């Protein structure tokens, strides 16, 4: 009895507010309305989310983008290492000729020579013999009026004499500055013609005089002379002193 009463009560409660539309609901009940399917249970809870699906395939490449703007110029780099040495260059062209040098000293000042001959027989003794025939006296350093050679160029000189001796002995000396340097003596042989010769190297200073002189007491010395130039006297500068160059 009690079950049936409850059922009826519920039925009345549900029917009362909708009494005017009962006919339509009875023919096609709405499943969404509560209590419409009053014979079923309450709706269940929503199910859990399913597992994620697998990743899809990669898409095709997109179109190439436009070229970007040009960037600003970077800072200047460090200098590179020094390169290797190059090959030698070709020889240069000849230089311009230099200016002419100064004129040298006239070599004439370093010349001194003479060659003379005797023209008078038996010259006076104890004084310079005067050789008056001139073969060579370009510089005039020999004085035929005195028979003396005067040194003008300091240096070393060579002197020589070749004398013909006839009829009597001859003794001569070559003098330098009033002093006899060498002697030559020839003893005459009868019926003959002799020769007396001498030569010497001397160093002379400017102003030194050189000459030949006959020793004797009379005027009849055997020093002979004629037009064949038998007796001669000569001298020349072999080389001047270095300070004269
Ligand atoms: Ca002799």
Automatic annotation (TrEMBL):
Keywords in alphabetical order: Collagen, Hydroxylation, Secreted, Signal
PANTHER family per UniProt: ADIPONECTIN, EMILIN ELASTIN MICROFIBRIL INTERFACE-LOCATED PROTEIN ELASTIN MICROFIBRIL INTERFACER
Compartment list: Secreted
Pfam families: C1q, Collagen
Record's compositionally biased regions (Low complexity): 72-87
Signal sequence residues: 1-24
Main location: secreted
Biased composition (Basic and acidic residues): 54-70
Region feature Disordered, mapped onto this chain: 24-106
GO cellular component, one term: extracellular region
Protein name from the UniProt record: ADIPO protein
InterPro entries named among the record's database cross-references: C1q_dom, Collagen, Collagen/C1q_domain, Tumour_necrosis_fac-like_dom
Organism classification: Eukaryota, Metazoa, Chordata, Craniata, Vertebrata
Ranges where the C1q domain occurs: 107-244
Top-level taxon of the source organism: Eukaryota
